[in-house]
Inverse folding.
């Protein structure tokens, strides 16, 4: 076998130019594939973290039907017991109880639909990073009566400014329409245009009187020290409190779940496309190499090299040639990904504001999971083997007597 | 007992289109230690005969026996294994492995035979010295002259300790001095180690040195002459 490795490796370098071009194209392909998939991974990770840290949190508790019905009457009845449970649990970093309503927001200029989130300012600040999105004014300023924290796109749509009054209209738990006047205290921008155009934050105490004359909560958002413990915690809550449903962020957000599941497979699909194209290059190079060496291969068979060895030698040539390019490409890709993982990859120049429209940031920290490199190597070897089958079979059909005589 | 026997050997190329009778009913016997030349004009069937004897091609009719084993119809991989251990080949175009050095070209065949490292080294050193290539062991074929390449090819053919060596036009690409050197070496191996050589050639220099000359015309044996030993 050592002899076959030696002869195969040396055969690759008979035509350094030809092999070099193929290796260079494999390097470029591998590098590009790794960069694109690492960028996709980084983008997804950033999006998932943003969503979790800004609002979704690691786990949430609701009335079992609240998320589908969004009925104000479907509030968490066992709120206080659940809070006692959460406060005694060492896995819980913080939590925030929220009142959630769907309604209308009205200014002197226009009216728009709104998702109203009533929060305890301090608890929310401890639980999420949503307050980091403040671009103007104050996050639910304490010196204002009924302050409201409003999305940048919505404030533009309503044509109001800090200090202006707007009216929120929604259903109370008796299913009666009720309204309240609020004063714009601050403006936020999440980068997700749809969210910024529909969402407002108010103090939950300011909503209580309007909704039910008492505090009631539709959602408890929980941040954990370790997000992998979410599943265990929600299962314990569901066991202990039958009137609610606790869910992890993955269960709550199908979009995030899909993105997380897909993140590992981007590399796979991208590489399949790249390697499919490269396979033709490998096939061409190997076929040329075999046709040029017909007499030599015939001679090898004549003097006693059996067909299995000839076949293995050609396969090894293809695999070694491809792996050389792949190893260099993956190494260069690894270095590039590492650099941008530390310094960030700013795509503002390419994408402008378009990333924000879709809820992403232009500055991405790309990464590749170590096992993805392994998958790529397996794909590369499989491609090299598949691409070499045709020329290897051609070689096996040689009749030594005929080619040696030629 | 002859080491090679051909029984009614015939070969027809393109039997369904334009049949070419390369061999016609060839019956020959070769004894161990022969230094034999198969001569004849181009297309007379010399190379075809050597290919049949070497198991590189199959006859249309008849069969070839090496010792008491019939190699005609032998399965491909078994035949390759048989050639590896019993037959040495020297080709007109040298056909060395270009990426290997002279030493590696000689040891390659022994690697295929799974010989020990020490044995391979001893045999390769011995043969390359005998061929006058002691200072060329690390040279690749393209760094060697035609004569040197053909001497490496002979060393390679001898390395596997074959029963006989088939040399197809071994001097055709060589100048007179190289050809004579090569013939001297092969004659020496024949004399000293009793290696059987069968050449196909129309080179008079080879014919003059042979102790048996088989003349072929149109695929048939025209003459089979044995010269008196010198």
């Amino acid at each position: 076998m050592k002899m076959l490795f030696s002869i195969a490796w040396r055969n690759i370098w008979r035509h350094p130019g030809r092999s070099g071009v193929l290796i260079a194209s494999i390097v470029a392909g591998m590098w590009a594939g790794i960069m694109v998939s690492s960028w996709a991974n980084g983008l997804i990770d950033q999006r998932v973290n943003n969503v979790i840290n800004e609002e979704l949190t690691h786990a949430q508790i609701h009335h079992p039907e609240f998320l589908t019905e969004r009925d104000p009457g479907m509030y968490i009845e066992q709120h206080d017991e659940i809070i006692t449970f959460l406060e005694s649990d060492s896995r819980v970093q913080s939590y925030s109880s929220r009142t959630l309503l769907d309604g209308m927001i009205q200014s002197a200029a226009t009216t728009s639909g709104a998702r109203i989130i009533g929060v305890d300012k301090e608890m929310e600040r401890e639980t999420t990073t949503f307050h980091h999105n403040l671009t103007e004014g104050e996050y639910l300023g304490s010196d204002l009566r009924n302050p409201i924290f409003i999305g940048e796109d919505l404030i533009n749509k309503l044509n109001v400014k800090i200090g202006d009054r707007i009216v929120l209209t929604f259903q109370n738990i008796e299913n009666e329409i009720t309204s309240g006047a609020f004063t714009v205290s601050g403006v936020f921008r999440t980068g997700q245009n749809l969210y910024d155009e529909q969402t407002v934050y108010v103090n939950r105490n300011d909503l209580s009187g309007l909704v039910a004359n008492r505090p009631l909560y539709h959602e408890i958002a929980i941040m954990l020290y370790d997000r992998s413990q979410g599943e265990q915690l929600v299962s314990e809550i569901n066991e202990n409190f039958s009137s609610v449903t606790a869910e992890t962020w993955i269960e709550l957000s199908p979009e995030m779940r899909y993105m997380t599941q897909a993140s590992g497979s981007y590399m796979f699909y991208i590489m399949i496309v790249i390697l499919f194209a490269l396979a033709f290059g490998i096939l061409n190079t190997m076929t040329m190499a075999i046709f040029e060496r017909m007499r030599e291969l015939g001679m090898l068979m004549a003097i006693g090299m059996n067909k299995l060895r000839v076949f293995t030698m050609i396969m090894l040539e293809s695999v070694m040639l491809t792996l050389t390019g792949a190893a260099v490409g993956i190494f260069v890709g690894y270095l590039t990904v590492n650099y941008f993982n530390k310094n960030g990859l700013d795509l503002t120049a390419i994408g402008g504001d378009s990333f924000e429209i879709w809820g992403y940031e232009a500055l991405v920290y790309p990464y590749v999971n170590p096992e993805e490199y392994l998958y790529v190597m397996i794909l590369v070897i499989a491609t090299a083997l598949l691409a070499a089958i045709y020329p290897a079979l051609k070689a096996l059909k040689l009749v030594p007597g005929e080619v040696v005589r030629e | 007992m002859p080491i090679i026997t051909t029984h009614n050997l015939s070969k027809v190329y393109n039997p369904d289109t334009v049949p070419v009778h390369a061999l016609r009913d060839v019956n020959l016997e070769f004894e161990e230690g022969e230094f034999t030349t198969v001569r004849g004009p181009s297309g007379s069937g010399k190379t075809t005969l050597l290919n049949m004897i070497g198991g590189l091609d199959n006859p249309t009719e008849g069969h070839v026996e090496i010792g008491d084993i019939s190699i005609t119809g032998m399965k491909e991989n078994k035949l390759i294994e048989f050639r590896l251990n019993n037959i040495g080949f020297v080709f007109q175009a040298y056909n060395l492995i270009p990426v290997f050095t002279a030493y590696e070209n000689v040891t390659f065949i022994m690697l295929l035979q799974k010989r020990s490292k020490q044995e391979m080294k001893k045999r390769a050193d011995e043969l390359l010295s005998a061929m006058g290539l002691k200072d060329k062991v690390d040279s690749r074929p393209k760094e060697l002259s035609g004569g040197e390449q053909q001497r490496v090819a002979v060393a390679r053919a001898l390395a596997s300790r074959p029963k006989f060596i088939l040399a197809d036009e071994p001097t055709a690409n060589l100048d007179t001095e190289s050809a004579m050197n090569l013939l001297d070496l092969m004659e020496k191996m024949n004399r000293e180690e009793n290696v059987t050589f069968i050449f196909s050639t129309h080179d008079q220099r080879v014919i003059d040195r042979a102790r048996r000359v088989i003349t072929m015309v149109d695929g048939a044996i025209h003459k089979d002459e044995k010269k008196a030993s010198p």
In short: The longest strand of chain A covers residues 92-106.
